[in-house]
Every structure is written in structure tokens, then in C-alpha cells.
Amino acid sequence: MNTCICCGSMGYNPDMPDKITSRDGNGEYNTVFSINIKKYFSPLRVNDMGMCAICQKYWRENH
């Protein structure tokens, strides 16, 4: 889960895979976590500092 440090918006990392590969590399499996997170939350990408795109834009325009 990603949380913006400025506005507190929460969402999942859009790069989160729908499937995970087993440790031994013998298969891919759907994850319940991934399915449920995507059902209840929107994607939210944050930068290295933890700011969402809206807060980054606001910060650039006002500083």
C-alpha cells in the first residue's frame, strides 16, 4: 500500500503484480491480497519522497 505523506491518500502500487512466482520458480499464482486490494483501493503512485502526483504538482507550483 502507498500513502501520500502530504494528503494522506491511500492506494495500491500500480506496479503490484497480479500473480506471484513461487520461490522455486515452478509456477505463478493469483494472490488473494492483490485481488482484494485492487477491489477496495485505487492505484496510487508516489515518488521517492512519498508524495502523490497531485501533491507533487501543487508543491512545484507553489515553491
Please explain how this structure is put together.
This protein is elongated. Strand 1 and strand 2 form a beta hairpin. The protein is an alpha+beta fold and 63 residues long. Strands 1-2 form a two-stranded antiparallel sheet. A two-stranded antiparallel sheet has the order 3-4. The mean pLDDT is 87. It has two helices and four strands; from the N terminus they run E-E-E-E-H-H. The longest helix is centred in the C-terminal third of the chain and has 10 residues. The chain has one domain.
Write the layout of secondary structure elements.
Blueprint: E1 2-3, E2 10-11, E3 19-21, E4 28-30, H1 32-40, H2 53-62
Antiparallel strand pairs: 1-2, 3-4
Q: Tell me, what's the shape?
A: elongated
Helix content: 25-40%
Sketch the major β-sheet: 2 strands, antiparallel
Please tally the helical runs, counting DSSP H or I stretches of 4 or more residues: 2
Q: What's the Cα radius of gyration? A: 15 Å
Task: Give average pLDDT, whole number.
Answer: 87
Task: State the end-to-end distance.
Answer: 28 Å
Strand order of the largest sheet: 1-2
Low-confidence stretches: none
Count of domain modules: 1
Structural class: alpha+beta
Number of strands: 4
Looking at this protein, list some descriptive labels.
alpha+beta, 63 residues, two-stranded antiparallel sheet
